[in-house]
């Protein structure tokens, strides 16, 4: 019977103490603490509250006030000092300092999710998250935002120094090998003739300049040759003036007679029955239409010859890369047939028109081909090296926050303060970007997790707009 009686006495004591606690702000009686040690007053074992009074709280509820106040029952609100305030900042509230180094007072509390909502007293949002305090020293600098060291460490914020570098950009595009238009020729007659025989040359045969291609008989050519021979004989006897001789020779030249044919007339003093027609240049025969015994009309193409010692590579470059390319730049060409054998050429022509369907510009690259392994219509991968000759201010591409309308970087001003800085960008390459305006060499910028600081900066601008009644930009 003694144990039930003891338990009943303890419960009664708890109820009485609960009533007493609900009606008084004083400590519990010593005898009650002895019975229930868990309810003992913890204040003797805790450090005294320090710092200025931040706000006052209702002792019986969750109401707060910036000024001293009483409850409906007449009880005084309890003063809460800065060391007793709880926030999500890594530093304790009493260590938050203003610019002068002194502990700053809390101006207001802001929404933890970044919404433009503030409160003069502590409160919770719809999800139960506590509003974050904003101290007096945090918004004195309109151009910067302060982030606690704990947030920086958790978010993995990293910085680097803007450096002077020679920025190289590689423009890559597919290309096609083509013949050099200046190294092609055709063989045709300026008179009506008959092909007696064609030499042993076919399509694909490499010929040299002056090499015989065919033997031709032409009545008009023979008539002109006889006239020239008569002029030679008349000039030798003094019967004809020099002008007549020159006119006879000019007629042969106008008919396209080879120099060897004219030289034979002057040497032998006879008119050859046939003329041996030579190749006009070095190169490969890419087309042959001449056959033995055929009649050749004036202007009819009998042979096509192309020299492949120098070829062109035609490249279609995207419109956005056109400003990076200049005539004379070195180019590396890797044919698909020989991927491990690069060829070095240079840009010779940038064509004046764009292809409307693909929004590309055509670039001509001149490429030596001494062993003639590059053949027309081959595919090739082209790399055009572009870049700056003088060093320029560059940062990592990840440091730039591009909103579409403007580009920003976050300048590290030290002591956890960051300033959004508008910049003007230039060339890109090797994971870096040129900064034409807005930064100088050795400026420290954020390159990792800059979205967190940018969000803080935008929130600060929004809160400032609420304070002043202006719409944030």
Automatic annotation (TrEMBL):
A single cellular component GO annotation: outer membrane-bounded periplasmic space
Entry keywords, A to Z: Ion transport, Signal, Transport
Stretches assigned to the CusB-like barrel-sandwich hybrid domain: 185-306
InterPro entries: Beta-barrel_RND_2, BSH_CusB, CzcB_C, MFP_Cation_Efflux, RND_pump_MFP
Keyword Ion transport among UniProt keywords: yes
Keyword Ion transport: yes
Sequence ranges assigned to domain CusB-like beta-barrel in this UniProt record: 311-386
Pfam families from the UniProt entry: Beta-barrel_RND_2, BSH_CusB, CzcB_C
Domain CzcB-like C-terminal circularly permuted SH3-like: 393-453
One GO process term, biological-process aspect: plasma membrane copper ion transport
A molecular function GO annotation: transition metal ion binding
Span list, region Disordered: 93-126
Assigned protein family: Belongs to the membrane fusion protein (MFP) (TC 8.A.1) family.
Protein name, entry field: Efflux RND transporter periplasmic adaptor subunit
